[in-house]
């Protein structure tokens, strides 16, 4: 277990200074408890169980208790049910499904239901606001249409699914203002059908989605490029999410900036900053791309509908262990088997998810509108709509070439402020809402101009 005592004294020191100035503490000691509670052993147990079903191809056996996608999703639901029972039925666990047919894509060999396993931990103050963590249930052989050949999918993506189940076990012991969804998505290898189905379901239910943290491969530390690292991981995010802006807003970006400041990018920056604060031993790498080159993940259907979504995954992939039939060829062992999964690393990335789920679920909503002014003036001005649950606001700014929010100022419970001597032309700006517990919303980039 990590020793957190020096951090305790630092945090208390910060709190005492900040309390005198009515500034909420920026450190929540509960976060360290969450990190320390994530178990590599429990993740290993789930990865081995899921890989042990032989194949989890979307079109594999649904009736067997020992093989196929049906056995896998029943195992996941049973584990979510156990977690719920342990926390006094704090999770609403259910299946969400959609029918897919061969005419819907070239990776669908027959009609079948794509079935997601959903577990919802309802928030106490904002029950209709949701932050989501997802893993994928399904796996594939070299030929994605082959639903009979063994495809254990230990890293892709039993690791992400096991991490999602473990996050549920850890966070179910806490109460949150916002709701958290832990979900196993199916049909990823056939065209992201599980994510599409859940995103559309969210729209029909009227859910207010804070964002989705999609975990796809979080267990490999030995890259095909020869790099071995148990600290690096990638955060993929789209610059401007589909349906996020109107044509008028798109044209305005030529004059006001914001090409890399959509809601998914702000979610990525949130995760980056939180990890730097609470898990400084980790090296989060923000990748300015929806996903790996020419590829896609289960956050994309949420982006398509205008929701924030990012992909969290290992930094150093080994392609001989992805989408490969198990075999030995030219001295190379191919196949996505359990032996290639590093469980302590998977636990670290699970903790990355858990602390960000908790921070967002403890935070107030973000301001709906943020206006900016200060053209041809020496000071920049910002004005925003106040939100329920915030005791104050932070103004952030950064160099226009910086990927992260590098400067900030707590301005208190106000709805507008000026930053004296900071010229609007030289920086980008944003505003977040801060709760009494110190947790804050993602930063909102200005979406209006002060006249």
Summarize the structure in words.
- This protein is an alpha/beta fold.
- It has helices spanning 5-20, 29-37, 40-51, 69-86, 154-171, 193-205, 247-256, 263-278, 300-304, 343-361, and strands spanning 91-100, 112-121, 126-136, 178-185, 208-215, 232-237, 283-287, 309-314, 327-329, 332-334, 370-373, 380-384, 392-399, 407-412, 416-419, 427-434, 448-449.
- It has three domains: 1-27; 38-361, Aminopeptidase (3-Layer(aba) Sandwich); 370-449, Sandwich (Immunoglobulin-like), CATH 2.60.40.
- It is built from ten helices and 17 strands.
- Strands 1-2-4-3-5-8-6-7 form an eight-stranded mixed sheet, with helices on both faces. Strands 15-12-11-17 form a four-stranded mixed sheet, with no helix packed on it.
- A hairpin with a 6-residue loop joins strand 11 (370-373) and strand 12 (380-384).
- Helix 2 packs antiparallel against helix 10 (343-361), helix 5 crosses helix 10 (343-361) and helix 8 (263-278) crosses helix 10.
- The longest helix has 19 residues, at 343-361.
- It is globular.
């Amino acid at each position: 277990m990590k020793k957190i005592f020096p951090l305790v004294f630092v945090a208390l020191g910060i709190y005492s200074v900040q309390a005198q100035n009515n500034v909420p503490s920026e450190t929540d000691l509960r976060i360290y408890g969450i990190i320390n509670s994530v178990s590599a052993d429990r993740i290993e147990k789930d990865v081995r169980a899921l890989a042990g079903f032989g194949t989890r191809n979307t079109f594999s056996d649904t009736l067997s208790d020992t093989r196929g996608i049906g056995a896998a999703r029943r195992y996941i639901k049973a584990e979510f049910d156990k977690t719920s029972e342990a926390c006094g039925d704090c999770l609403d666990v259910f299946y969400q499904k959609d029918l897919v047919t061969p005419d819907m894509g070239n990776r669908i060999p027959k009609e079948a239901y794509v079935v997601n396993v959903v577990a919802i931990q309802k928030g106490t103050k904002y029950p209709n606001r949701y932050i989501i963590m997802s893993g994928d249930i399904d796996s594939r052989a070299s030929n994605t249409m082959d639903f009979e050949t063994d495809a254990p999918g230990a890293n892709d993506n039993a690791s992400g699914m096991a991490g999602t189940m473990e996050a549920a076990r850890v966070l179910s012991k806490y109460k949150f203002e916002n709701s958290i969804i832990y979900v196993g998505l199916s049909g990823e290898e056939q065209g992201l059908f599980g994510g599409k189905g859940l995103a559309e379901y969210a729209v029909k239910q009227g859910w207010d989605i804070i964002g989705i943290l999609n975990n796809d491969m979080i267990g490999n530390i030995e890259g095909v490029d020869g790099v071995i690292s148990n600290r690096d991981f990638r955060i993929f995010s789209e610059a401007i999410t589909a349906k996020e802006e109107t044509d008028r807003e798109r044209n305005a970006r030529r004059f006001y900036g914001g090409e890399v400041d959509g809601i998914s990018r702000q979610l990525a920056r949130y995760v980056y900053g939180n990890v730097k604060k609470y898990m400084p031993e980790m090296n989060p790498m923000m990748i300015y791309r929806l996903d790996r080159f020419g590829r896609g993940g289960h956050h994309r259907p949420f982006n398509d509908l205008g929701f924030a979504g990012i992909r969290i995954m290992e930094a150093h992939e080994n392609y001989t262990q992805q989408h490969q039939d198990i075999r030995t060829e030219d001295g190379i062992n191919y196949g996505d088997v359990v032996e290639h999964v590093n469980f302590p690393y998977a636990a670290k990335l699970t903790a990355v998810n858990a602390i960000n789920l908790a921070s967002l679920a403890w935070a107030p909503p973000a301001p709906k509108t943020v206006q900016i002014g200060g053209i041809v003036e020496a000071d920049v001005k910002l004005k925003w709509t106040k939100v329920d649950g915030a005791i104050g606001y932070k103004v952030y700014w950064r160099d226009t070439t910086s990927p992260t929010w590098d400067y900030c100022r707590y301005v208190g419970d106000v709805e507008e402020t000026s930053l004296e001597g900071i010229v609007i032309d030289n920086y980008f700006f944003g505003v977040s809402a801060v709760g009494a517990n110190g947790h804050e919303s993602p930063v909102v980039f200005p979406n209006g101009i002060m006249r």
